[in-house]
Write a structure and sequence with these properties.
Blueprint lengths: L3 H53 L19 E6 L9 H16 L4 E6 L1 H9 L4 E5 L8 H16 L5 E11 L2 E10 L20 H76 L1
Parallel strand pairs: 1-2, 1-4, 2-3
Antiparallel strand pairs: 4-5
Helix pairs in contact: 1-5, 4-5
Length: 284
């Protein structure tokens, strides 16, 4: 059995860690509320813009824009969105595992990677994947220009013919306890369910072609903004839950160690009393 000093030191250490995890939980909760508010404000605009483009695309010539060009798939680009830091449960592990699984099915020699987050960059760099761009250390100052900057590099890579498709793997925020891994195709823009749509007779002003030219670049920037907001809110939610679990586990450890400390102390007292009684008996 460990001596009293060792147990007391362990209890002190666990209490110190518990204070840190509790503080991290509070910080993550504050960041999550802010991120969730921004994400919920962006969602209606994103969905509405997607719906408008959904209605426009079937009626325009796909040669109108290079972003609509459907090619034979020879090389694929992947955008993988994770975080810069850990201590967020399985948040990073799940998205990286999903991305690597899809990339390995294609063959990593046929994939160009756009890494968003230090965890993504480090994961694929260690495994010698072809990383075209990486974006790190921007989450605390996240704003729309970040999405535009990332989108420019990704879009130009597609327009220049470096890749024939671009996919995105990210965490979608469902609720505080749940984040869903999503894998979507970003480019080329194509919707496979036009036949199931409810077609509404609309009058477009200016022409559909001009609207497509104007809306599609904006749509791609908004999509990048969506991926960043969803991922950041998911990260903070995952970290908050992980730190809450760590705090609860620390409390359980403190209870177990306190019980062990009391048992050790009682055993020590009993041993001392037996020695005193034995000594007294020996003097008789």
């Amino acid at each position: 059995m460990a001596n009293l000093k060792d147990i007391r030191d362990r209890i002190k250490s666990v209490r110190s860690i518990q204070k840190v995890t509790k503080a991290m939980k509070m910080v993550a909760a504050a960041k999550m509320r802010k991120a969730q508010g921004r994400m919920e404000q962006a969602r209606p605009y994103t969905h509405r813009l997607t719906e408008v483009i959904h209605h426009l695309l079937p009626d325009v010539d796909r040669e109108l824009l290079p972003l609509l060009d459907i090619r034979e798939i020879q090389r694929v680009g992947y955008i993988v969105v994770a975080s810069d830091r850990g201590l967020a449960g399985s948040f990073n592990t799940n998205v990286l595992k999903k991305a690597q699984q899809e990339i390995d099915e294609i063959g990593k020699q046929n994939v160009d990677l756009f890494c968003i987050g230090k965890k993504t960059r480090d994961h694929f760099k260690r495994r010698d994947y072809n990383i075209i761009q990486s974006h790190i250390e921007f989450w605390n100052d996240l704003d729309f220009p970040h999405a535009m900057k990332m989108g420019e590099g990704i879009i130009s890579h597609f327009i220049n013919g470096e890749v024939d498709e671009i996919h995105v793997v990210y965490n979608e925020f469902v609720n505080v306890a749940t984040q869903s891994i999503q894998s979507e195709r970003l480019l080329p823009l194509e919707y496979g369910d036009e036949d199931t749509m409810t077609h509404i007779d609309r009058l477009y002003e200016p022409s559909k072609e001009k609207l497509v030219r104007s809306l599609i670049p904006r749509h791609l920037n908004i999509q990048m903004w969506k991926y960043l907001l969803e991922s950041y809110a998911s990260e903070q939610a995952a970290r908050m839950v992980a730190m809450e679990n760590a705090t609860d586990n620390a409390e359980d450890m403190i209870k177990d160690l306190s019980l062990e400390f009391n048992k050790a102390r009682q055993a020590s007292i009993t041993k001392e009393m037996l020695e005193i009684v034995s000594g007294a008996e020996a003097l008789k």
